[in-house]
Write a structure and sequence with these properties.
The complex is a heterodimer of chains A (1015) and B (366).
Chain A: E1 3-13, E2 27-33, E3 36-39, E4 56-60, H1 62-67, E5 70-76, E6 84-91, E7 105-113, E8 117-130, E9 145-146, E10 156-171, H2 185-213, E11 218-228, E12 234-247, H3 250-254, H4 261-272, H5 276-281, H6 301-304, E13 311-312, H7 323-326, H8 329-346, H9 350-356, E14 372-386, H10 410-413, H11 421-438, E15 443-454, E16 457-469, H12 480-500, E17 524-526, E18 534-536, E19 539-540, E20 550-565, H13 571-599, E21 604-614, E22 618-630, E23 640-643, H14 649-672, H15 682-685, H16 695-700, H17 708-714, E24 723-726, H18 729-740, E25 748-750, E26 762-776, H19 784-805, E27 812-825, E28 828-840, H20 842-855, E29 858-859, H21 860-878, E30 891-892, E31 901-918, H22 926-948, E32 953-967, E33 972-988, H23 989-998, H24 1004-1014
Parallel strand pairs in A: 9-11, 13-14, 19-21, 23-24, 25-27, 30-32
Antiparallel strand pairs in A: 1-4, 1-8, 2-3, 2-5, 5-6, 7-8, 10-12, 11-12, 14-16, 15-16, 17-18, 20-22, 20-29, 21-22, 26-28, 27-28, 31-33, 32-33
Helix pairs in contact in A: 8-11
Chain B: E1 2-10, H1 17-24, H2 29-38, H3 41-45, H4 49-70, H5 73-78, H6 86-97, H7 101-107, H8 117-127, H9 131-148, H10 155-163, H11 167-182, H12 196-210, H13 212-215, H14 237-243, H15 248-251, H16 253-267, H17 274-294, H18 298-302, H19 304-318, H20 323-336, H21 346-363
Helix pairs in contact in B: 2-4, 8-9, 9-11, 10-11, 11-12, 12-21, 16-17, 16-20, 17-19, 20-21
Classes of the chains: A alpha+beta (1015), B mainly alpha (366).
């Protein structure tokens, strides 16, 4: 009996009128947990009932506490007929299960009905008394903290970062059960909501157990997703990074009122570090060539982001078909070899790797200083699978409302079956791991997984950034291999460290591998910062810009968009068609990214996320990333256009016209993003390193579609060469589409990373939003070109609309711009964008850029670090803005921080799933009215839960799913939304200042002054 | 390619004041887009017409969803669906309940239960206010009227409490409710020159002085009749009944003569229109006193403003009395009654005349 859950129903307000005769409602409440139910008295004839109930007490196992949601149902009492349900509230009590989070949940919750939406509010108080349970065989994992934030949470320090944890749970989807034909849509929706809530609870508990096994106490970068596989079932899967976190004492947390919170957080571990030597050299270490860099010159992208074209069909017989056998070509084999050689060369022991930690993956995108030593390139893998029914006889009793049914995870139940969802992911992860090794890296950071499902075909994708990490933060076993390597590098390591003595902020760019034995071809030059190590010409990563990186100018959002038509097909044929298309898509997406990056005059991409979406008759690719100019990397060359028919005069003229346009655009962009790198004499840099021979061979194996690659290959000797050959209308289109991307209006910036490189003076105004567009393709005879254009227009127009809508916030930046594409029907494209607009102080920006122009460099550190400092200047201005209102303001942001404020406490994870359905679509304002209201309601419910936990913000908020289906003929629509984030309490910097002046701490003062000057 | 669905939802609900105005003014989305284009917004922002269309639609949808809450403003403050800063909430409410001068002059004093489509159609054509906007304004009047009509206590206070309006707007609504409840005629041609401001000014004074609520301050415990009569919305029946007693001022010839001589003595040499005043005194006095004595009849209450204009303002105006002379006259006319020994209803006279004098002065313009 390890826990007692106590619930009190206080009151209701704004209830709907349930009795037309009296225009009033006789409401009462059912409180249910597990299979126990309590009821309040009926409060007669009121829309604002005051139940003021006793404490309802549930005595339950902590396992149940973790799995089960508290279910509160508000009903209208009816003497003669069945009581009518008004709506429900599901409360996840997980935040009450660990000591440092919330102690009580108390507040007004919207009463939600899947058919009518929010119908009034109910005031509830929930408490949990936990008893210590010493049973070591326990199944619960109470006490493990979960964070969606993909960096070390601000009021904690990482003692050890253990590594990857994953789990998945499978069930039948209630929507596809036979009983669904006879029950109401409401009952069906509620069954689904409840099931998913239950499954996520269980999933979280299981992940927690794994963390405890690893001796961790927290999961950071927790990402949980649903795969609605339709007939074949429902998969809930999660990945995260297990850590051991230490809470920073409150004094420490308050001390740096004048200093940046994040900086201080991250420095504390260093201060406690017994070996200061490691500290000082940690981030700066220009480690030797051992690190690996990925320079995605057009050609070799195929390798690093080796898209998995391998198709493994899963026939209904359940026979496993090895995907490895089908994957193919010389290219793959080559990669394998390289992997092998890389490992041998390194002398690391892969076996030990596998034993200690199966996958050295990290879902984090930002790291404590010194953690990230070198960054390789992006590694990604995809695989096309056919969904088979997750047949499970144990699910017969699933619709019973009791807890008699148990959820089963697939692998434990069907251990004899080779083809499971778990095995699919294991396969992909294995692939990622081997790619990382091929890139000379022992770890993958910024790791994420996703799926795209259409009918019975599913594309599984995983991607991340290969990296070399500092083992100090990791549990011993994890990076033993790395440790050995490090030891062997020691001499160089120290000498360089002492010589330079300054963190150059370029270490992570340096290539890790032996340049004579490169796994793929790349232009290498000496690092433009330290001049000692080799760097690639371009760097692609999935992580945020490291805090110690130096950049010039500002960053910008870069997107590659692509559509490919596909014939409608069934099962295997369909999967094969998709598999065949994938490599071309990835290739073209990559080409587009490269072109656009060059057009912007930049040389690195951060936060790269490539999404491939599968539909009935097309595939969509959307890549988003934030382009920056890294000072350590060489200046990107321009783009040259080459015509194919040189004798045609007018054609030539046209080409030169285009060339001029491109050059102008590059020049304009350089000005716009303030990219003005210092001139460096050529001789210092040295000539490009000659490239290995195998290049052309490699290319041929995969480039049937595009001749220009070979063109590129010819030009590799020139530094300035990036040639686009216009040989047909297709290529012409490409060039045109390059130039159609309009830069945001002045005063506007956008990026998809946490913070905008080059902006360091955020003010406190933030606006998180979600925008959804669904477009119908009108043409019946679509071609790839028109499709591309339509898709491009859709995205561009969406961005333009955002800029227009948020124009009152100028100067501002759209951060963490997250695009999601889905293809709900044949001719429908749905694009969902969630981002946050943050204002910044233009005035100060001018000042800082001036000083930076003098120095010609800008430390990215200041971007994040300086922000809270600079806020001091306009604090006075912004503080009075937040006046008190009757409903407490809850901020929501996809970022891990709140500008101008300090997070003082994490209250727990918010993970909510809602279904909304209507049978009166027209009356609710059509599809737009329906979805607008629903999303507003979802926000409201998230805010209400956060407020009830005592919080005033959600950070790392993400809308993971927004599945919208409509049937206008039947006047019906349905939408499923899944959101998550971390509930926090934040304190404005201005308020913190008051606290710090009340208890003046001498040591704080100098730091404060210094900081002020620095900005 | 057409956008089937196009929405934007902010954690803080975005309110565009200009679009809100267009929406309140009852423009359709396409008209609103046209007007916005003409305002030069495209040039300022570099946006396209498509963007503008999408933006306008989005705001209209938001306003449409907010409208239900705006009908009961306290709900807007407590609801959880739209996170709106308090200052914006106040703006939304204030603008929603704001009304057009032209419109209010048309319906002031009319029965609010009617408001048929045809009536509003006519008003819309006459005033140039869109039908949609007329409907909103009319419904606002009706809604406020219904909520406060049965309530005790200060009319403006009740309105402010239940609709969270600014002080100024709440007082305007009090006037609208007061006029509607007493059905004062304001539509006659000769009353057209009066602005809503004039009439609201008069209403406020009448609410202050002529309703049961006005005397409520003198007796500490609420008088028993107030349970029947509303405090602020209806005129004080007892007071109206008592006003009959004033008739003696014109019925008793001696008293009338004495009153005239007192006024004339005091004002001699001070008025530019002294001879006219002297000649007209009895007519004017008869007019003012008769108005008072007839107020027991509902019909005459309704015609109060017509009578004031016919019996006092028009005669003065035709003799070209300057405003200052009117003021001097009315002051002296009221004050002199205190010197009439035979007249016993001094308090009643003051209660009547103080209000009436202010009203007349406000109404005395072209």
């Amino acid at each position: 009996m390890p826990g007692k859950l106590k619930v009190k129903i206080v009151a209701g307000r704004h209830l709907p009128v349930m009795d037309r005769a009296s225009d009033l409602t006789d409401a009462f409440v059912e409180v249910k947990f597990g299979n126990m139910t309590f009821k309040t008295d009926v409060y007669h004839k009121s829309l604002n009932p005051q139940w003021n109930s006793e404490w309802f007490k549930f005595e339950v196992d902590d396992e149940d506490l973790q799995d089960e949601p508290l279910q509160i149902t508000v009903l209208d009492h009816d003497t003669y007929s069945a009581n009518d349900a008004i709506g429900k509230v599901y409360i996840d009590i997980d935040p009450l299960l660990y000591s440092e989070a919330a102690t009580v949940i108390s507040g007004w919750f919207p009463i939600y009905d899947t058919i009518h939406g929010i119908r009034g509010e109910i005031n509830v108080v929930v408490k949990v008394d936990l008893f210590n349970d010493l049973n070591r065989f326990r199944q619960s994992s109470c006490g493990v903290k979960f964070f969606c934030t993909t960096s070390i949470p601000k009021c904690y320090r990482a003692v050890i970062i253990h590594g990857f944890v994953e789990e998945l749970v499978v069930n039948e989807d209630p929507e596809y059960q036979w009983i669904d034909r006879i029950r109401t849509p409401r009952a069906s929706n509620e069954a689904r909501q409840r099931l998913i809530s239950l499954m996520s609870g269980e999933l979280q508990r299981k992940i927690g157990l794994k963390v405890l096994e690893m001796r961790g106490n927290a999961v950071v970068g927790y990402l949980q997703c649903f795969d609605l596989e339709g007939e074949s079932g429902l998969v809930v899967r999660a990945i995260g990074t297990a850590c051991t976190l230490d809470k920073l004492s409150s004094t420490a947390a308050f001390l740096p009122a004048c200093n940046s919170p994040s900086k201080e957080m991250k420095e504390i571990p260093f201060n406690e570090d017994p070996n200061p030597n490691t500290h000082s050299s940690g981030p700066s270490t220009p480690l030797k060539n051992q690190t690996y860099s990925f320079s995605p010159s057009k050609s070799y992208s195929r390798q690093s982001s080796s898209s998995d074209t391998d198709l493994s069909l899963t026939p209904k017989t359940g026979m496993g078909s090895g995907s490895a056998g089908k994957e193919g070509g010389p290219f793959k084999a080559l990669l394998r070899q390289q992997t092998q050689s890389a490992l041998e060369q390194r002398g690391g022991s892969p076996h030990r790797f596998c034993r200690n930690r199966e996958f050295p993956f990290f879902t984090l995108t930002a790291f404590p200083p010194g953690f990230l030593v070198h960054v390789g390139g992006v590694v990604s893998a995809r695989s096309v699978k056919l969904l088979d029914r997750i047949h499970n006889p144990a699910f017969v009793g699933i619709m019973g409302n009791t807890r008699s049914y148990k959820l089963l995870d697939w692998n434990s139940f069907n251990s004899d079956e080779p083809e499971t969802r778990d095995a699919w992911w294991a396969e992909i992860r294995q692939e990622i791991k081997s790619h990382a090794k091929a890139l000379g890296c022992h770890a993958v950071v910024g790791y994420s997984e996703s799926t795209s499902i259409c009918e019975e075909v599913c594309i599984l994708s995983a991607s991340g950034t290969a990296a070399v990490l500092n083992p100090r933060f990791l549990q011993d076993g994890t990076v033993e291999g790395c440790l050995e390597q490090r030891l062997s590098w020691q001499p160089g390591f120290f000498s360089i460290g002492q010589e330079e003595n300054l963190p150059a902020g370029c270490g992570f760019c340096h290539i890790p591998y032996d340049e004579l034995n490169m796994p793929f071809p790349a232009h290498l030059t000496y690092c433009y910062s330290c001049r000692k190590q080799k760097v690639p010409d371009v760097l692609f990563t999935t992580i945020d810009l490291p805090t110690d990186a130096t950049v010039i100018g500002k960053g910008c959002l870069i997107q590659a968009r692509l559509c490919r038509l596909k014939k409608k097909a069934q099962a295997e044929a369909n999967a094969t068609a998709i598999s065949n298309l994938l490599p071309f898509m990835e290739y073209e997406v990559h080409t587009q990214l490269m072109n656009k990056l060059k057009l912007k005059g930049m040389n690195a991409l951060f936060g790269l996320r490539i999404q491939i979406t599968v539909g009935e008759n097309m595939l969509m690719g959307l890549a988003s990333a934030t382009g920056v100019y890294l000072t350590a990397l060489p200046t990107p060359g321009g783009i040259q256009i080459a015509g194919k028919t040189p004798n045609d005069g007018s054609y030539e003229q046209h080409i030169s016209h285009m060339q001029k346009k491109i050059n102008d655009t590059i020049a304009k962009n350089k000005e716009l993003y303030e990219i003005n790198p210092p001139e460096i004499p050529e001789e210092i840099i040295g000539s490009p390193i000659p490239e290995p021979r195998q290049r052309s061979r490699l290319l041929r194996s995969q480039s049937e579609s595009s001749d220009e690659v070979i063109e590129l290959d010819l030009s590799h000797g020139k530094k300035d060469a990036f040639v686009l050959e216009i040989d047909d209308t297709d290529a012409m289109e490409d060039v045109h589409s390059l130039l159609t991307d309009v830069p945001p209006p002045s005063g506007f910036y956008s990026c998809n990373t946490e913070i905008m490189p080059g902006i360091n003076n955020w003010t406190s105004e933030i606006q998180m939003f979600t925008s959804v567009r669904v477009s119908r393709l009108s043409n019946i005879n679509l071609t790839n070109q028109t499709l591309n254009k339509n898709f491009n227009d859709l995205c561009e127009n969406l961005l333009k609309s955002l800029y227009f809508k948020l124009r009152s916030m100028i100067p501002c930046c759209l951060c963490h711009v997250n695009f999601t594409v889905s293809l709900p029907e044949d001719e429908l494209i749905q694009v969902t964008v969630t981002a946050v607009a943050i204002t910044f102080d233009k005035h100060q920006a001018v000042q800082t850029t001036k000083t930076h122009v003098e120095k010609s460099l800008q430390r990215a550190v200041s971007v994040e670090k300086a922000s809270p400092l600079t806020e001091g200047h306009f604090r006075q201005r912004s503080a009075p803005a937040c006046a008190n209102s009757t409903v407490g303001v809850v901020k929501m942001t996809p970022l891990s921080f709140i500008p101008g404020a300090k997070i003082t406490k994490y209250l727990g994870i918010i993970n909510m799933f809602f279904i909304r359905e209507t049978t009166s679509l027209r009356e609710e304002g059509g599809v737009s009215g329906f979805l607008h209201a629903f999303i507003a309601e979802v926000f409201a419910m998230v805010r209400a839960h956060v407020a009830a936990l005592g919080g005033n913000a959600v950070v790392s908020y993400i809308m993971k799913q927004c599945v919208f289906m409509e049937n206008p003929n039947k006047n019906q629509a349905q939408c499923l939304i899944n959101v998550s984030g971390d509930a926090v309490i934040f304190v404005r910097e201005s308020e913190l200042e008051i606290i710090s002046t009340q208890q003046p701490i001498a040591s704080c003062q100098p730091a404060c002054g210094g900081g002020e000057i620095a900005t | 390619m057409t956008n089937e669905l196009d929405i934007f939802v902010g954690n803080t609900t975005l309110i565009d004041e200009d679009v809100y105005r267009l929406w309140l003014d009852g423009y359709s989305v396409s008209d609103a887009v046209g007007l916005r284009v003409r305002s030069g917004i495209l040039e300022q922002t570099g946006a396209t017409a498509g963007v503008l269309q999408s933006d306008t639609m989005d705001h209209y949808r938001t306003f449409h969803m907010l409208e239900r809450l705006l009908h009961t403003p306290p709900k807007l403050l407590h609801q959880l669906v739209f996170q709106i800063p308090p200052s914006r909430q106040a703006l939304l409410i204030e603008r929603y309940y704001a009304f057009d001068e032209a419109f209010v002059r048309e319906v002031l004093g009319k029965k609010l239960s009617k408001g048929t489509k045809k009536d509003l159609d006519d008003i819309s054509t006459k005033t140039g206010v869109t039908l949609k906007s007329c409907r909103r304004q009319f419904d606002n009047f009706k809604r406020v009227f219904k909520v406060v009509e049965e309530m005790r206590g200060s009319l403006a206070g009740n309105i402010q409490q239940h609709f969270l309006l600014s002080d100024r707007l709440a007082r305007d609504y009090a006037a609208v409710v007061f006029f509607a409840n007493n059905r004062f005629e304001t539509g006659k041609k000769k009353l057209q020159y009066l602005t809503f401001g004039d009439l609201a000014f008069c209403a406020e004074l009448m609410i202050q002085n002529w309703t049961p609520g006005a005397v409520g301050e003198q007796p500490p415990d609420p008088p028993p009749y107030s349970q029947v009569d509303d405090m602020d919305v209806d005129l004080d029946k007892e007071f109206l009944q008592d006003l009959k007693e004033l008739k003696v001022l014109v019925a008793d010839k001696d008293l009338l003569d004495l009153h005239k001589s007192l006024v004339c003595t005091a004002l001699r040499g001070k008025l530019s229109v002294f001879p006219e005043m002297e000649a007209n005194f009895k007519n004017l006095s008869r007019g003012l006193v008769n108005i008072a004595s007839k107020l027991t009849h509902t019909k005459d209450v309704r015609d109060l403003f017509v009578d004031l204009v016919e019996k006092f303002i028009e005669p003065c105006r035709s003799d070209r009395w300057p405003l200052n002379d009117v003021r001097l006259f009315l002051n002296q006319y009221s004050a002199s009654v205190h010197s009439l020994d035979g007249f016993r209803h001094q308090a009643l006279w003051d209660r009547y005349m103080v209000t009436l004098r202010s009203c007349l002065l406000r109404m005395y313009h072209d």
